[in-house]
UniProtKB/TrEMBL annotation:
Residues 3-188 form the Ketoreductase domain. It comes from the Bacteria. It comes from Glycomyces rhizosphaerae. This is SDR family NAD(P)-dependent oxidoreductase. Pfam families: adh_short_C2. SUPFAM superfamilies: NAD(P)-binding Rossmann-fold domains. Belongs to the short-chain dehydrogenases/reductases (SDR) family. Coiled coil: none annotated. Keywords: NADP, Oxidoreductase.
Amino acid sequence: MTRTVVVSGGGTGIGYAVAERFAADGDQVILVGRREDVLTEAARKIGDQASHVVADLTEIEGAERVAKHAADHHGTVDVIVANAGGNIGIQAPEQVPEGLAGVSWLWTENLRLNVITAVHLVEGLKPHIADDGRILLFSSIAAYRGSGSGSYAASKAALHPYAIDLSTELGPRGITANVIAPGYIQDTEFFGAGISEQRRAWNIDLTHSKRPGTPADIAALAHWLAAPEGGNVTAQIIQSNGGALAGR
């Protein structure tokens, strides 16, 4: 059965890998993001099974645009992948004000990037989600071990109880809601221009598997959680970090 899958942050990295994995099964994917050129190219590479919506999910209007596109073109949505997010302190360090104003700005912006984007997408699409649907939110290993400034880690951790509440609300319809919490994943835009080889080696050394995670690793996990076989897994935070959190 062909499903409709909405993927925010679907133009690059983990989001693109997730969309590509679902499309490989014949599903229709809707890529959501803020950059028209990136989404157009991603949809072109995936092919006829992909469409895209340019939307800023920190704003209500962005979520409404996605919901209208999904309803007009597909009627219902089967899988919601709320992958959009990031750490504003890494993405735009030059914008951080000084002092308390900077602390407030970091917390506010990271909550907008990681919590509000997910809430707007899910709540906007909730009236259109089909029975036995799937909701996937994206956290981080930082939610367990901190992120330095506190704001990024806290914003990711906030998604954990949200998934539990979604599962409670929608579970009677066969809808599951889970969170994927990756560790270090290479080949994404999370670190902007990239990280030093020393930092990369440090991240890898923390793992038991002694390799970085990849977008394909997360895509495979997301695909299984969204499959019928994953129907009894809900209200869970599933980690994918090569053992890095457990330590040695």
